[in-house]
Design a protein that fits this description.
By secondary structure, the protein is α+β, with helices and mostly antiparallel strands. It is built from 9 helices and 15 strands. The strands form 4 sheets. The protein has a 5-stranded antiparallel β-sheet with strand order 6-5-4-3-15, with no helix packed on it. Strands 2-1-14-13 form a 4-stranded mixed β-sheet. Strands 9-10-11-12 form a 4-stranded antiparallel β-sheet, covered by helices on one side. Helix 1 crosses helix 4 and helix 8 packs antiparallel against helix 9. The protein is globular, with a radius of gyration of 19 Å. The termini are far apart. About 45% of the residues are buried.
C-alpha cells in the first residue's frame, strides 16, 4: 500500500487505532513525491490585482483575506475520527485532499462556470462562463455593467500565458513533473507576480486546484506538490476543514492561508483569490467561489428580446 492509499484508508475507517495513525504519519513525513499516485476593467494583458475593503474595489498588490470554495462546500470538514486520534500536519491534509481529488473526476458540459460571492452582500456575485474553444463571458466583474453578461477578450490563463482546456488535460500527473512544467513555462513577465517570474510554482499550483478546469489526476498532483512545499503548516480544525498556511512566495512576512476540506478536495477558504483569467484579488472579508459545468449561457444584451 502506498502513502496515498494509506491516507485513503484512514479517511474510510471509523476509528483508526493510534498505532495506525502514528505509522501513517511517520511514513508520510518521510515519503518522497517522485511517483504519481476590482478597479479598472480586468481585460488588459497584464495581471490585475484588486483589494476589496468592505464594498469599494481598488487596485492593490498586498494580500489579505479571501474565501475560495470550489465545488460543493461541506461543514463537516476533515473526518472527526482522524482529528481526534492524532493531529494531522498540513502535509497530511494536502495528501488526503490528493487522494480525494484523484477519486473525484470532473463532470462535463459546454461551459466552465465560475461564481464568486463576496461576504459583503452589497457586492454582487461575479460570474464567468468559458467554452472549450476559449471564448469567455462575464457578469458583474469590475467594469461590467451591473447584472449584464458581456464577452471577455481574455480567456483562461496560467502563469502569464493563455492555457486551453486541451493544455490542462495534458498536464503532467506526477507532482515533480508538474512543478517542472510550471517552472519551465514561458509567459508575459508583466502578467506574472514576482515569484512566478522567478519560477516559483506555488501560485500556479493553487490556480490549478481552485478555479481552472483541471482534470482529477492533475489536481491530485497539484495537491501533492503543494504538500511538499517547505513551511506548510496546519493551524487546526475549523468550520469546513483544516486551516492551513503556506509561506507567501511574494511576501516573506506573510502567509497564504486557506481552509482545505480533504474529503472533497476543495479549498474552502483562502487569503488569495486567483481568477481563471490570470487576475488576482484580495479583501478584508472573504469570497466564496463555486465551479461547475453547465450547458447554458445566459443571454447577452443583444440576444435578449
Amino acid at each position: 500500500m502506498n502513502d496515498l492509499e494509506e491516507v485513503a484508508s484512514l479517511l474510510a475507517k471509523p476509528e483508526p487505532s493510534e498505532k495506525v495513525v502514528a505509522r501513517s504519519r511517520s511514513r508520510l513525513q518521510h515519503r518522497t513525491l517522485g511517483h504519481r499516485t476590482l478597479g479598472q476593467r480586468m481585460r488588459s494583458r497584464g495581471r490585475v490585482r484588486w483589494f476589496v475593503p468592505g464594498v469599494a474595489l481598488v487596485a492593490a498588490g498586498a494580500a489579505a483575506a479571501v474565501v475560495i470554495a470550489t465545488g460543493a462546500v461541506t461543514n463537516a470538514g476533515a473526518p472527526a475520527h482522524v482529528i481526534a486520534a492524532a493531529p494531522v500536519s498540513g502535509k497530511e491534509v494536502l495528501l488526503m485532499a490528493a487522494v480525494s481529488a484523484e477519486r473525484t473526476p470532473q463532470s462535463s458540459g459546454t461551459y466552465w462556470h465560475v461564481t464568486a460571492k463576496w461576504s459583503n452582500s452589497e457586492i454582487p456575485p461575479m460570474e464567468s462562463w468559458t467554452s472549450r474553444d476559449g471564448k469567455r463571458w462575464t457578469r458583474n466583474e469590475p467594469g461590467d455593467t451591473p447584472d449584464t453578461v458581456v464577452p471577455d477578450s481574455i480567456s483562461l490563463r496560467l502563469k502569464g500565458a493563455d492555457v486551453s482546456f486541451d493544455d490542462l488535460e495534458k498536464l503532467p500527473t506526477d507532482p515533480e513533473a508538474l512543478k517542472a512544467w510550471i517552472v519551465q513555462r514561458k509567459g508575459d513577465p508583466d502578467d506574472m507576480s514576482t515569484s512566478e517570474a522567478q519560477g516559483d510554482p506555488t501560485l500556479s499550483l493553487l490556480a490549478l486546484i481552485t478555479e481552472l478546469p483541471t482534470p482529477a489526476e492533475v489536481r491530485s498532483a497539484a495537491f501533492q506538490a503543494l504538500a511538499a512545499t517547505p513551511g506548510v503548516e496546519n493551524t487546526g480544525a475549523v468550520e469546513g476543514g483544516q486551516a492551513l498556511r503556506i509561506p507567501d512566495p511574494d511576501d516573506p512576512d506573510n502567509w497564504i492561508q486557506m481552509v482545505v476540506d480533504p474529503e472533497t478536495a476543495r479549498v474552502v477558504r483562502a487569503n488569495l483569490f486567483l481568477a481563471g483569467n490570470g487576475n488576482s484579488g484580495h479583501t478584508d472579508g472573504y469570497i466564496s467561489v463555486t465551479t461547475d459545468w453547465t450547458d447554458e449561457l445566459p443571454a447577452t444584451p443583444k440576444d435578449r428580446p
